[in-house]
Amino acid sequence: MQEIKDNIIAISRHISDICVKKGKDPDNITVIAVTKTVDTDRINYAINNGIRNIGENKVQEIMAKYEKIEKNVNWHLIGHLQTNKVKYIIDKVALIHSVDSIGLAEEISKRAGKAGIQKDVLMQVNVAQEETKFGIEYEEIDSFAEQLSRFPGIRVKGLMTIAPYYEDTEQARPVFRRLKEKYDTLAAAGIPNVEMKYLSMGMTNDYVIAIEEGSNMVRIGTGIFGARNYDLL
Ligand SMILES: *Cc1c(COP(=O)(O)O)cnc(C)c1O
């Protein structure tokens, strides 16, 4: 497990270096350790070595692991969320990154209301218009934000995207840059209940470029835990 600790330290140094170079404060960058397929012992080891945020893409996996994970951590739902599963995670996750339909927002708002809370969410944007990916279209962001603004049980906290996989990660730069532009205009728009606090973009292969382009929340899986073994599930 030592390599998990080494990876966490290396990534944190790497992020500090980028921030120094770009005149940013490394404390403003949140690292989410993506724990899909990772067993609970390894997740707890990561938490004991400084990880404060973990991300899962499946509701089922959150449910299976939840009780076995250290309590001093924030859970993030980073994958597609089906409306009928919102009820299971509404009291478990700190931030839902994948809101991409009014129906889903409505259900989250309703369930949050019942639980007497407001839920922080991000709008997932399919910047590169990949058919295989979820998310609203770039052109829809403004009207989507206006619509979400009316749901009492949710608070919009920013934007999320998954860039296409590029061999040459430089190619992801325009994708990140485009979303940062929208993030800035929305921040200035002052829509009630819509705040631009988190820009969730960047994974193991492209997080450096994402941070250079303004990301303040990176989702790193293999870079921390090594290659995923889906057979274990
Ligand atoms: C799996 C996953 C990640 C992490 O991917 P790595 O390449 O392992 O860093 C990030 N974001 C989402 C939405 C994911 O599903």
Layout of helices and strands:
Layout lengths: L1 H21 L7 E5 L5 H9 L4 E4 L2 H7 L8 E4 L8 H4 L5 E5 L2 H14 L3 E6 L16 H8 L5 E7 L12 H17 L4 E7 L6 H6 L4 E4 L1 H4 L8
Parallel strand pairs: 1-2, 1-8, 2-3, 3-4, 4-5, 5-6, 6-7
The site of pyridoxal-5'-phosphate has 14 residues, from strand 8 and helix 9.
The biggest beta sheet reads: 8 strands, parallel
State the share of residues found in helices, binned by percent: 25-40%
Strands of the widest sheet, in order across it, are: 7-6-5-4-3-2-1-8
Q: Mean of the pLDDT scores?
A: 96
Low-confidence region ranges = none
CATH C-level category: Alpha Beta
Number of helices: 9
Output the radius of gyration.
Answer: 17 Å
State the distance separating the first and last CA atoms.
19 Å
Q: What structural class should be given to the helix and strand makeup?
A: alpha/beta
The count of domains is 1
Number of strands: 8
Write out the distinct hetero groups bound to the structure.
Answer: pyridoxal-5'-phosphate
Q: Strand content of the residues, in percent?
A: 15-25%
CATH architecture annotation: Alpha-Beta Barrel
